[in-house]
Amino acid sequence: MEPENTETSYRYSKENLNDEEFDQDYTPGFTDESESYAPSYAPDDSDSFDEAPAAADKFAAESAGEPADAALAQEHVYSVPPKSVADPALVKTYENAHKIFETLFNEIGQVIVGQKEVVEEVMIALLCNGHALLESNPGLGKTLTISTISKVVDLSFNRIQCTPDLMPADITGTTIVEEHGGNKSFRFEQGPVFANIVLADEINRASPKTQSALLEAMQEKQVTVAGHTYPLDKPFFVLATQNPIEQEGTYPLPEAQLDRFLLKILVPYPDFDEELEIVNRYTAQTSPTTSRGISKDTLMSLQKLTRDVPISEELKQRTIRLVMRSRDGGAIEYGASPRASIAIILASKARALIHGRNYVAEEDVIAMSYPVLRHRIILSFEAERSGVTPDDAIEDLLIEGGFLKAKPQENESSGLRAKLPFGSKK
């Protein structure tokens, strides 16, 4: 059967998934717009493989050893045997990319105990060329997780300890006047923001003016000092940590600035076995260490491969309706913007790649809806007073969208959340 409107789905991917927040340098391998192709089919439980377009047949044929057409083979080379998991050429295939991630997670696991979802979501942000905000109470390993990932991915790393007296120049850099033989000259001294990974530790303890300076660099990926513009390193990621805003001495980030983070990741407490392992490791004679897993070039190749992961048109449309449903009122006072639709779809592609699949499944959209939406929706006063959390509201959106089944207790008329409307449009 003929592919379903591949030209339309490609135009959506190219125009909407190339947001400035993400990878601006990526261009598809095809140069002729009339022949451009972004796979739009991904089998899930509701799809029939009989209706798969030609691209899915080519994936299956190639896996069986049958030749694919030259154009597709140029972008996805499946016959090259792996030499080393760190070889950038190996990310031409989804299978070998999965091996790279297994190696990365094993290396990170040498230092970080548990926190598998947290590590995975940080890696998803890197694959999407986006920024991540990690929130938890103090002492749960946010800083250690980010610094360990920077070592494994072999990226330059700087840490900014945010305090109320931190100034914007302390982050971006400053111009210094130098004098040589009676002649004065100006030299720009780079700030800590000039690195591949910048850890903004306790970002909500910095003043709003300093937060704005950092978040401007996140958006523009450049800084302007004394009228001169300086581009930041590529790739560039800000991984910020914050303590809950209920604690004293914090400045909550405005919603418009929060929207610049691709994901908001909640770091949970470890369970008993994990905490026991943490104690054993860090009370021994030697502290755990890790080594480099991949190079910068390999990461950038993986970023491009992420955008090639196909998603079915049906699942894409359901995801967009999910985000639009957040604007229907009820428990959510202000819903998510179209940037959330872009983020969910792109993050779902990255998750599928990490899990070794060459298509986006419904479980990817479900998993990515929480970290993408939880900082992009604002609950109504009634919902907050009733104890509803952003994750509760997201779960209701997923239930309304047919992604999740309602729990029995949520159908009871006496239930707390049953009394709160979560948008009525379908």
From TrEMBL:
GO MF annotations, alphabetized: ATP binding; ATP hydrolysis activity
Which stretches of sequence are listed as region Disordered? 1-66
Q: Which residues form the ATPase AAA-3 domain?
A: 131-263
This chain's protein is named: MoxR family ATPase
Q: Which UniProt keywords apply?
A: ATP-binding, Nucleotide-binding
Question: Which residues belong to any copy of the ChlI/MoxR AAA lid domain?
Answer: 327-396
Point to the regions of Polar residues compositional bias.
1-11
Residue spans with biased composition (Low complexity)?
Answer: 51-66
Xref: Pfam families: AAA_3, AAA_lid_2
Claim: Nucleotide-binding is one of the keywords in the record:
yes
